[in-house]
Amino acid sequence: MPQRCSTARGREFGEGVRAAIKASGMPARRVAELVGWQEAKLSDFLNGKIGCTETELALLLGVCRTPVEERDHLLRLRPATHVKGWWQKHGSCSSARLRTLVENVREAKTLTTWHPHGLPAFLQSADYLRATMLASPNVPDEEADRRVAAGRELQEVLSGGGLQCTFYIHEQALHLPVGGDEVHVGQMHHLLLMAVRRNVTIRILPTAVGAHAGMSGAFTRLTFCAHEPLVVVELENSTLIEEDKDSVEGYLQVVRSLDRAGLDEERSKMVLLQLAERLSTADSSGHDRLSPGALAVGAPFPGGHRI
Fold first, then answer.
1. 172: left (phi > 0), else alpha (psi -120 to 50), else beta?
2. What is the C-alpha separation between 224 and 163, in angstroms, rounded?
3. pLDDT surpassing 70 at residue 163
4. DSSP 28-55
């Protein structure tokens, strides 16, 4: 299928309008009549063949009784649906639900994520996710349950099996006791459960590699069947959707470098298994825990295996 020239803004706008019409409970023909359009014009508009004026869009959303917040969001998107690249500013902290990320992940063919110092949200247990939120000075406590639910929604996309996912994780992230020892052990077992899924590949970057291509920070790269790839960079209080061809290609080069430097899939699974075993048997004081860096320098694990 040929790739269409589309943007993240344009796709979110189109999906938002279609959802508004569906939520109205009226057939498309009736909506078109109330707006003063032919049904064919509404169809062409929804398929991106023609545009509309701000007044026409406001009338359409009014007819559909679209909630004010969503109406205003779609009105802001309308004049910029052709613009590639999108820096979304969220205020003092990121939104509980990253709508653009969720919608693009649902449509993606492949997902590749790199995280240098923690675990990506896609792989976090509920307790790990909650602990990371409690550690943030900008996330309101009353939003904890909502944010955990949003994280689970994002993870559910992986359960279908159609999206092929590769996660590159730095070794040191595995040793960070987020939420305490019990949550740490639970998170390691959660990673093992995720690692055996047919559509999930986990690759670990050893500490001994030293300087590496991913030192600039975490990102998620998505590819699609019908349009060009994009990169999502989540920051403290904003999200960058990168669609420029050269910029996206730059991130691909980072992925290729991480691929060369990281442990392969089977060795990464072995590391996860052995680290989970070591953490599970460690005493409450933390003795007998594997030190960061041991994976790459050949330190023995239970059973005498070496990495």
1. alpha
2. 10
3. yes
4. HHHHHHHHT--HHHHHHHHTTSS---HH
Residues near 291 by beta carbon (within 8 Å), at least 6 away in sequence: 175, 299
pLDDT in tens, 81-114: 999 999 999 887 777 778 899 899 999 999 999 9
Q: Which string of DSSP letters, residue by residue, matches 65-114?
A: T--HHHHHHHHHHGGGTT---EEEE-SSS--SS-HHHHHHHHH-SEEEEE
Mean pLDDT, residues 67-85: 95
Tell me the C-alpha distance between 294 and 275, whole Å.
Answer: 11
Could you tell me the domains of the chain?
Answer: 8-80 (1.10.260), 86-281 (3.30.870)
Q: Which three-class secondary structure state does DSSP give residue 200?
A: strand
